Amino acid sequence: MADQFLKSTWVSERTRSQTTMVRWGHAGQPVLVFPTAGGDAEEIERMKLVYALWPLIEAGRVMIYSCDSVAGQAWFGKQGSPELRMRLQHEFHQYVKHEVAPAIRRDCKDPGATIWTSGASIGAFHAVATVCRFPDIFTRALGMSGTYDLMRFIEVKNFTEDYFVSSPLQFVPTLNGPHLDVLRRCLVVLASGEGRAENMGESWAMAKVLGNKRIPNRVDPWGPNYNHDWPTWRAMLPKYLAEWTS
């Protein structure tokens, strides 16, 4: 496994902090997996998600990437003012577009590689948001047990422009023109259990916004035996990636 592991660290000019990106694999479709809440780039390995994906990685069907959740660390750690946290949310997505995506493409030795995204809980928010914001780079998203309304985790009622352009529930209804045309060639899958701490309503609300704009999407309910927890996500992600790369 060690020979298929690569860790890169740099100071981001957009988030103005040290950030880390990790890669597992040697060939295949690049997939960027966002950590939960304030998790770091290696969270998915500690929580055994990488091991669940290992047959696909070893077979050269996927290359799995992950980066620190810089915005999540500030958001859920209540660092700075609400306005600062909303700005960092926007800057984090700019970091993903302008720093993480080019690093993935260089690693793949393909300057035009399209990237799939995934994530669980808050990671699902970022996975869906990056596809909706940058569909020329990120073309497919799997949101697992998604939490898409982040305003309920902050102590103000009104959002700023930075939050508006970062949150697909807010900005997708306003999309038109070439951006929307490109996005309509992408796919968003919203998978969620219905067990402990799960909320299917979040996925249905996101799907309604996407569907109203005729953006290809579907909601996959996994039933009451699947909780908002890592065993669920270790079952989900390998299943979808196996289907998508078959």
Task: Describe the SSE topology.
Blueprint: E1 5-12, E2 17-24, E3 29-34, H1 43-46, H2 49-58, E4 62-67, H3 70-76, H4 82-108, E5 115-120, H5 122-133, E6 138-144, H6 161-166, H7 168-171, H8 177-183, E7 187-192, H9 200-212, E8 217-221, H10 230-244
Helix pairs in contact: 2-10, 3-4
Please describe what this structure looks like.
By secondary structure, this protein is α/β, with parallel strands linked by helices. It has a single domain, classed as Rossmann fold. It contains ten helices and eight strands. The protein has an eight-stranded mixed beta sheet with strand order 1-2-4-3-5-6-7-8, sandwiched between helices. Helix 5 links the parallel strand 5 and strand 6. Helix 2 runs parallel beside helix 10 and helix 3 runs antiparallel to helix 4.
Low-confidence stretches: none
**What is the overall shape?**
globular
Radius of gyration: 17 Å
Helix content: 40-55%
Mean pLDDT: 94
CATH secondary-structure class: Alpha Beta
How many domains comprise the coordinates? 1
For the structure shown, list the relevant keywords.
246 residues, alpha/beta, Rossmann fold, eight-stranded mixed beta sheet, 10 helices, 8 strands, 43% helix, globular
Short structural description:
The chain is of the alpha/beta class and about 250 residues long. Helices cover about 45% and strands about 20% of the residues. Helix 3 packs antiparallel against helix 4.
